[in-house]
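dumping this here so i dont lose it
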């Protein structure tokens, strides 16, 4: 009996010692202790997150995140992840933040995640083959095949207009499917699609519609990180005030996209 009591006491002591260690590993403590934060991003979504000619991970969202990390005095480790598993990975704790043009537009996401101060504003665009004759307005996508990631707000937009969803890993795959006539259209970020069209003038694709309203993207964290997110938001606000966001916008888009 004495041995059992002693073992129980040891177990309780071990648990009580281990608990603060878990708390010390929070996002807030890593920021306060100038540690390393992990950030999920696609790495295939130019010009927001992609690899340049030398293989370096870069893009507007990536460089904004690096600038935020520098302001906070922390290191950043990017974990490249397919879009449809990215927010699930954040929820599961595989990384601290997501930097991938996330706007948290649905009540379901807003109930699970929080967003920092906005660092970019953009809207939706509809792209199809240049020889497409069935589309004169956005509602005409009804019944057409839309190449979309399943969990994105652009996929939700395609569903809203009753297109038939063709699941894809990201924008690049959607554009290839349209070119190969395995899909008819895709909804995606106007800045990303315009960048693609500019860099690929012989793509055979063109824009058929662009939304008039814009949504703001920020760094995304799980609920319960209010203090950490406040520090991150302050860093973003400082980057806007000192001209860094404007400079990065001009670098990747030729204009400041940090203002609506």
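and the seq i came up w/
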């Amino acid at each position: 009996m004495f041995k059992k009591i002693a073992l129980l006491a040891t177990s309780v002591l071990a648990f009580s010692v281990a608990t603060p260690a878990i708390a010390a590993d929070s996002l807030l403590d890593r920021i306060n202790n100038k540690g390393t934060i992990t950030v999920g991003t696609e790495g295939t979504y130019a010009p927001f997150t992609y690899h340049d000619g030398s293989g370096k991970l870069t893009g507007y969202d990536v460089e904004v995140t690096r600038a935020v990390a520098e302001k906070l005095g922390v290191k950043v480790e990017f974990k490249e992840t397919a879009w449809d598993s990215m927010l699930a990975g954040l929820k599961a704790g595989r990384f601290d933040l997501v930097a991938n043009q996330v706007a948290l537009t649905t009540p379901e996401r807003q109930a699970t995640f929080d967003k920092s101060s906005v660092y970019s504003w953009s809207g939706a665009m509809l792209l199809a083959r240049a020889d497409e004759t069935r589309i004169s307005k956005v509602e005409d996508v009804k019944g057409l095949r839309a190449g979309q990631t399943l969990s994105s707000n652009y996929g939700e937009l395609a569903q809203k207009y009753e297109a038939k969803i063709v699941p894809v890993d990201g924008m690049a795959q959607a554009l290839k499917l349209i070119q190969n006539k395995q899909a008819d259209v895709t909804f995606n970020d106007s800045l990303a699609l315009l960048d693609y069209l500019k860099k690929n003038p012989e793509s055979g694709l063109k824009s058929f519609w662009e939304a008039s309203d814009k949504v703001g993207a920020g760094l995304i964290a799980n609920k319960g990180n209010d203090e950490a997110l406040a520090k991150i938001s302050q860093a973003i606000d400082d980057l806007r005030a000192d001209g860094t966001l404007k400079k990065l916008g001009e670098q990747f888009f030729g204009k400041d996209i940090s203002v609506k």
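The first helix runs from residue 2 to 24.
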